[in-house]
């Protein structure tokens, strides 16, 4: 009986030491002994509350297709709240100039923040809005033949607008 009590007490001491030296620093960022920091364990558990963004916006899947004659352009913008975003993939049948950018809600006309610009036939990725506003692409065909741009998007957007020939056209969402 004495051996069982001694083994139980030893296990309890070792478990408590491991909890304070390893588990608290790694899972909760609390390092009362300093051992967790010395071993690089502090904060390994991450911060799920900061990584998670819940939204009331419904998930939308959208597909758009635009034909662009030589030197013709189109712009497509989605309405997003701060922290909401989308997954996208677009492709074109020929090289286009593209610009992924956003305009903050309430900003002066012409104020925009750019995220990706270039010339290509496709692009894909994930976009998360740092601020509420309209977020999307400008595509321009600088080639000699007509090209078709196809966009597939899935995300938490509340509306879409197409800008073409100086006109804004609200689009129906699926």
Question: Could you give a quick summary of the protein structure above?
Answer:
The chain is of the alpha+beta class and 174 residues long. The chain contains three helices and eight strands.
Fold and architecture overview:
With 174 residues, this protein is α+β, with helices and mostly antiparallel strands. Strands 1, 2, 3, 4, 5, 6, 7 and 8 form an eight-stranded antiparallel beta sheet that branches. The longest helix is centred in the first third of the chain and has 27 residues. The chain is elongated and about 90 Å long. The N and C termini lie far apart (72 Å).
- The fraction of residues assigned to DSSP E strands is over 45%
Distance between the termini: 72 Å
The number of strands is 8
Residue runs with pLDDT of under 50 for 5 or more positions: none
Mind telling me the C-alpha Rg? 26 Å
For the biggest sheet, the summary is: 8 strands, antiparallel
Helix content: 10-25%
Q: What is the averaged pLDDT score?
A: 88
- Overall shape: it is elongated
Compressed to H and E, one letter per element, the order equals HHHEEEEEEEE
The number of helical elements comes to 3
Pairing-aware structural class of the strands and helices? alpha+beta
């Amino acid at each position: 009986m004495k051996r069982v009590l001694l083994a139980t007490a030893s296990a309890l001491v070792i478990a408590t030491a491991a909890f304070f030296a390893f588990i608290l620093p790694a899972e909760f960022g609390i390092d009362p002994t300093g051992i967790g920091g010395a071993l690089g364990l502090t904060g390994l558990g991450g911060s799920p509350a900061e990584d998670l963004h819940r939204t009331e916006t419904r998930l939308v899947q959208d597909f758009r297709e635009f034909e662009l004659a030589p030197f013709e352009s189109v712009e497509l913008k989605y309405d997003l709240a701060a922290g909401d975003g989308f997954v996208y993939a677009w492709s074109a049948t020929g090289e286009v100039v593209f610009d992924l950018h956003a305009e903050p809600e309430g900003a002066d006309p012409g104020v925009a923040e750019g995220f990706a610009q270039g010339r290509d036939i496709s692009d894909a990725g994930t976009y998360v809005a740092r601020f509420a506003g309209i977020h999307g692409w400008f595509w321009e065909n600088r080639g000699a033949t007509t090209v078709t741009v196809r966009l597939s998007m899935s995300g938490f957007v509340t509306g879409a607008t197409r800008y073409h020939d100086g006109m804004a056209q609200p689009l129906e969402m699926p």
